[in-house]
Amino acid sequence: MTVLIDPPAWPGPRGLMWSHLVSDSSLDELHAFAVRLGVPERAFDRDHYDVPETVHARAVELGAEAVSSRELLRRLIAAGLRRRKRH
Q: Which Pfam families match (predicted)?
């Protein structure tokens, strides 16, 4: 059971770079971690939270594993938690 965070590499609101926060075991674990991190519910998008670069270090301090974006996606898919957008 691990919460994962990738590097802040996506431009977003307020001129910040953004990361993805996911769990490789359950959405319940992910939501509980987001509450501890102080991330608002509105940051949740299907299977991950979008978090600004300003919380990346704190997420790691709280126990999130810093991984590459490729590794994050691989583990999300392997856990069966990947939820794609509907077209």
A: DUF4031
